[in-house]
């Protein structure tokens, strides 16, 4: 009897110990930040002291990737552990799209829920809401983040440049007025609100020629799509990051006694860039640079809060971006004219939308002072791997038919090994590439070589492309003709993975 009792006590102690060791996780996901946009990644034109501090106390990855060169597919992969190009309808979503994440499968947040965490999302969502496009914005918006694993959600539905420009907290638009109901339409003008195309004199920031972004004007900025009503609910761009930061901090504070997973998804430096007054003009690089400083400040505020609450040591902070950088993405915000020699993609070629490296090779920093080693790693990891890696860390098994593209990279993520993935697929806007042993093959593609609107090289070429990233990270010398065997091998492997 006594033996049984002792066994029980020792089990209990180890359970409690494990419970204590479970780290809180704050996943900070920023929007359109490039490989060369942070001072810890080498830029001398922007100073990001808070993110640099995070890098100093953790691991900084030089070969980390989002799955895709735009937002929705990268976020789809993060949530599901599946490559987005396997499923139609995972491209950049309109602001009234239906939810594209299945509600009956394991997702990254539901994994944390199963492990006893409180889970929350604050910030950009862009994975759809409800089960159809025609939505009752004034009612219960469901299914959404709360149905795929988040106990708490405070989001905006799509992008900052798409209507409706409102916050949604747990199924409901925040500050909705029953006498001023919201209507949204992506095909035709709705209601009487002025639009960028009809009333350019009302704009405080003009859209770039040919980009669109000239539908309903909200806060002096033309958006994509039309909305009417909800005037009290509409956000002010200058305030929005402060609102998100306050909500993120509130979530941390509410859950300080138990393990929590916070997905804090910032809009910076995505367009429209309209930073808070305290950051306007601070970077000397225009609003894009100012937005990056604002983002760095918000990261610092979260770090400070965790320290003040005594949670810093056992909280893992992950910092990353959903895709590469872009300068002119729709508004005349001086991102190009005030660039001042800054290179948002660092030495990489391409940018947002591109199959070249700058599309998906993004900054990734992981700091968990209690566990992670400190340093810089070349391990190849993808954001799609978080699901399998956390499944391993939290000891929560997923069904073998789920998250099948996600690989357990826990040791690499914690800096215990520099061995990452051997193979990775990169998704540009219209073509795929495969990375293996630092050789990169881009499949031939007849689509345009340039996104002329954004002035980005897309990486499309009717001929196969092969680059040796060990020697040529800038993808300048196409070696496909010199290594036809390797080209075939990689093309076949890509095909095989596509068919899996
Ligand atoms: C594009 C928008 C761009 C941006 C992007 C989504 C045009 C011409 N451009 O279609 O401004 O909103 O979608 O960005 O409409 S993402 O980071 O959310 O993928
Ligand atoms: Ca993005």
Automatic annotation (TrEMBL):
Annotated source species: Flavobacterium granuli
A GO molecular function held by the record: hydrolase activity
Chain ranges of the Sulfatase N-terminal domain: 23-395
Protein name: Arylsulfatase A
Keywords, alphabetical: Coiled coil, Hydrolase, Signal
InterPro entries to which the protein is assigned, alphabetical: Alkaline_phosphatase_core_sf, GAG_Ulvan_Degrading_Sulfatases, Sulfatase_CS, Sulfatase_N
Signal peptide extent: 1-19
Similarity comment text for this entry: Belongs to the sulfatase family.
PANTHER family named among the record's database cross-references: N-ACETYLGALACTOSAMINE-6-O-SULFATASE, SULFATASE
Coiled-coil stretches noted in the UniProt entry, renumbered to this chain: 476-500
A Pfam short name: Sulfatase
Lineage: Bacteria, Pseudomonadati, Bacteroidota, Flavobacteriia, Flavobacteriales
Keyword presence, Hydrolase: yes
């Amino acid at each position: 009897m006594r033996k049984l009792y002792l066994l029980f006590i020792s089990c209990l102690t180890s359970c409690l110990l494990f419970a204590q060791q479970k780290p809180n996780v704050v996943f900070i996901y920023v929007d359109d930040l490039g490989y060369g946009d942070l001072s810890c990644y080498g830029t001398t034109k922007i100073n990001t002291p808070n993110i640099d501090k995070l890098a100093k106390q953790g691991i900084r990855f030089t070969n980390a990737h989002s799955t895709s060169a735009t937002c929705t597919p990268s976020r789809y992969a993060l949530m599901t552990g599946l490559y987005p190009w396997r499923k139609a309808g995972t491209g950049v979503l309109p602001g009234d799209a239906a939810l594209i994440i299945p509600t009956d499968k394991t997702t990254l947040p539901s994994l944390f829920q199963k492990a006893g965490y409180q889970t929350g999302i604050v910030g950009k969502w862009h994975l759809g809401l409800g089960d159809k496009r025609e939505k009752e914005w004034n009612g219960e918006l469901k299914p959404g983040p709360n149905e795929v694993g988040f106990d708490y959600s405070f989001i905006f539905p799509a992008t900052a440049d798409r209507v409706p420009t409102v916050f949604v907290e747990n199924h409901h638009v925040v500050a909705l007025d029953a006498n001023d109901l919201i209507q949204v339409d992506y095909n035709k003008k709705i209601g009487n609100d002025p639009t960028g195309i009809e009333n350019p004199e009302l704009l405080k920031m003009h859209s770039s020629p040919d980009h669109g972004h000239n539908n309903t004007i909200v806060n002096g900025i033309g958006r994509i799509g039309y909305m009417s009503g909800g005037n009290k609910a509409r956000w002010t761009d200058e305030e929005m990051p402060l609102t998100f930061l306050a909500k993120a901090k509130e979530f941390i504070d509410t859950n300080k006694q138990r393990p929590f997973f916070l997905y804090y998804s910032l809009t910076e430096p995505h367009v429209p860039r309209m930073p808070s007054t305290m950051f306007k003009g601070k970077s000397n690089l225009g609003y894009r640079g100012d937005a990056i400083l604002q983002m760095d400040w918000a990261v610092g505020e979260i770090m400070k809060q965790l320290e003040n609450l005594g949670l810093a040591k056992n909280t893992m902070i992950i910092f990353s971006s959903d895709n590469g950088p872009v300068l002119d993405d729709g508004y005349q915000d001086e991102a190009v004219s005030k660039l001042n020699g800054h290179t948002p993609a660092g030495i990489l070629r391409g940018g947002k939308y591109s199959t070249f490296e700058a599309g998906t090779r993004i900054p990734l920093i992981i700091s968990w002072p209690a566990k992670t080693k400190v340093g810089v790693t070349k391990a190849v990891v993808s954001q799609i791997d978080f699901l399998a890696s956390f499944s391993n860390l939290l000891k929560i098994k997923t069904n073998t038919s789920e998250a099948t593209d996600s690989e357990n990279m826990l040791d690499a993520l914690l800096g215990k090994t520099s061995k990452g993935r051997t193979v990775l697929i990169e998704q540009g806007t219209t073509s795929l590439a495969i990375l293996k042993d630092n050789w990169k093959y881009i499949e031939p593609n007849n689509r345009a070589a340039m996104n002329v609107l954004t002035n980005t090289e897309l990486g499309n070429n009717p001929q196969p492309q092969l680059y040796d990233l060990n020697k040529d990270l800038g993808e300048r010398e196409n070696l496909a003709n010199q290594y036809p065997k390797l080209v075939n091998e990689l093309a076949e492997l890509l095909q095989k993975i596509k068919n899996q």
